[in-house]
Amino acid sequence: MKHNLNIQPxxxxxxxxxxxxxxxxxxxxxETEEQLVATAHLLAQTGKxxxxxxxxxxxxxxxxxxxxxGSIGLEWLKRAKAETGLPTxxxxxxxxxxxxxxxxxxxxxxxGARSTANPFTVQEIADAxxxxxxxxxxxxxxxxxxxxxxxxxxxxxxxxITKLAAxxxxxxxxxxxxxxxxxxxxxxxxxxxxxxxxxIINDPSHITGAxxxxxYVSQKALDLDMQGLMIESHIDPSVAWTDAxxxxxxxxxxxxxxxxxxxxxxxxxxxxxxxxxxxRNQIDKIDDLLIxxxxxxxxxxxxxxxxxxxxxxxxxxxxxxxxxxxxxxxxGKALKLSGEFTEKLLELxxxxxxxxxxxxxxxxxxxxxxxxxxx
Length: 375
Ligand code: PEP
Ligand code: MN
Hints:
Largest sheet: 8 strands, parallel, barrel
CATH superfamily of the largest domain: Aldolase class I
Strand content: 5-15%
Helix content: 40-55%
Number of strands: 8
Shape: elongated
Order of helices and strands: EHEHEHEHHEHEHEHHEHHHHH
CATH architecture of the largest domain: Alpha-Beta Barrel
Bound molecules: phosphoenolpyruvate, manganese (II) ion
Low-confidence stretches: none
Distance between the termini: 24 Å
């Protein structure tokens, strides 16, 4: 996939002022003026956050839940900003939200996960942003679709917004796990690989849905070199009107931040560099060998495919596959590889083998299709 994004570095639009890591925090929803302003003061007093977030318009999965306090909340945010000096951030989902937020002097806008999943909504937001110089953060869509995420960033970028960041908030899945939204780190890593300049901010609150897991996910995000964290906080989480289970008090937030280990992506110390270089060389050699061995395996798979074709034998033989799986998973475990890992790896090899053999079996049909697609 190619992209078409032109992005300014994060430090051109958010003043981190030496605070490590970059943290944006505040309530899931602005509920009352007192709740918002008091939370903002406590957050500012920690000296650890760079911007105040608050949901003013809430996209709720079911109707009848609290849908946000609406425009009046923008006035409260203005007061919180005036009293604490913290820049403010809100979610926008319509052109009207954009206009009202900008008129109220909100500093940073973000597009929520449900909106990112809908190109019409994103385009409406993008059109409202044309000619405006405001930073915009785009949450991943609710479904794990990298193109949809990149597409939303491109729409906003095409409207002239270059102060852009992505927010990784995880993906909904039907199967329930310990997390509210599956992080699927691979998708965020794929975005980072595709657009290395794009800052990615992790949202451990919406990933975990549970305050006790926030520290763990935050650390993982930093270890994966994400640029910052957006964490929901509330003066009294137990009575929060939305997302009560995942919000933390400003004091708990401060504690989480204090316990995060910051690791540097590049090490300057030459001794460490040499050691790292040597270990990476070893990895490179092993990777080359792995690829070579996999290629050899595929050549044998091809031979088997031809043999099966000549003798009219089915491609898949479940017993044989089961045997491979059992034996190798056991062997892997003896060598300290997790069963899940070995199984996934073998499944990948197996599905490629099946694909190859299917190609061989359907040689003539395949050639005819080739001709058609190249015609
Ligand atoms: C939020 O930030 O409160 C929110 C609604 O998040 P998301 O769009 O990630 O669900
Ligand atoms: Mn929330």
